[in-house]
Fold this sequence. Notes:
By secondary structure, the chain is of the alpha+beta class.
Amino acid sequence: MVTGVGNVNTTQTSAANNAASALAGNFEMFLQLLTTQLKNQDPTSPMDPSEFTQQLVQFSQVEQQININKNLEAMMAMLKTSQASSNLNYIGKVVDFESPEVELTDGGSAFWTYNLPPGTETVEFKILDEDGNVVRSGSMPAEDITVGPNGRTEVAWDGTDADGEPCDPGSYTLEVVAKDASGKTIDGVNVNGRGYVQAVEVIDGEQYLIVSGTRVPPEDVVGVFDPGEIPEPEDPEEEAA
């Protein structure tokens, strides 16, 4: 579902038009006052023309600024329209995005990818719910982990806890810890969420991709794939077994 993609700039355009209308009204009042002053000025002490000339210059500068703002708003509208069209191309694709937090739907699965830094011997992982409770955990030798052609490991979770019971729908986070031969933690693990782009939605004027139920800003996408290019990942616990 795509909502309101063509109307994201309505508020900005109205603001510029309102400013122009207000300036026009003020300028008309200024001319009326100036005309009245000129009619009623003391012939022996006429008004200094430099004063109202300066005021006219100020009005002109404000008018120019409003016109610049209108042009900028028109450019922003064009850019957002172009962005909207570009974002629609994500629908039906598989994307990786910059967050270890994904949304689990009722009866669904969750997917992530992560990298392993050099020197990793053992990998530990935890899947946590939105309250920070661990629902699944495990560890395995790095040599048993399948690394994809892009240097990242794919993780699939069937949405069940350690007892095999289905977890409640909601947000879940994958934490991955890499350790060397001495058991010391190695920095550099980067976990990304993964999912199918189902829709593009506009929320409060901002566009989001709906990725397997997770709301993702387009700028957070770090990888795009056709569904047929992604091999079916295996559960790390099943691999370890």
